[in-house]
Task: inverse folding
């Protein structure tokens, strides 16, 4: 367990809480100029039916991901990035098709281009 924790910390990984109910684009993590985001683990739970699109700035990283009411989804991959910013300076964005409460967290880091 300690080795796994050290592996995450050595990558500069931070935990970002997700708590939004706003339709449209929601910035989950604002990126530092000259950097790109790298998401290693993402967990989402929707309190109502909603479609979610993950984005790098205004560029879609996924198509619509359909959530039923109270559904949970998780993406993870043993220390390898699963969602990466397309270009420097683009924020990690969660787009909601409607005003539904979505909760969760992301483990992510910022990296040089």
Result:
């Amino acid at each position: 367990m300690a080795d796994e924790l050290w592996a995450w910390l050595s990558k500069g990984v931070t935990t970002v809480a997700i708590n939004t109910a706003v339709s449209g684009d929601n910035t989950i993590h604002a990126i530092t100029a000259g950097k790109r985001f790298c998401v290693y683990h993402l967990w989402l739970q929707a309190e109502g039916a909603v479609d979610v699109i993950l984005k790098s700035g205004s560029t879609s990283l996924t198509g619509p991901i359909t959530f039923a009411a109270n559904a949970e989804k998780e993406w993870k991959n043993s220390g390898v990035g699963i969602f990466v910013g397309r270009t420097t300076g683009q924020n990690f964005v969660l787009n909601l098709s409607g005003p539904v409460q979505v909760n969760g967290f992301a483990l992510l880091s910022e990296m040089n281009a």
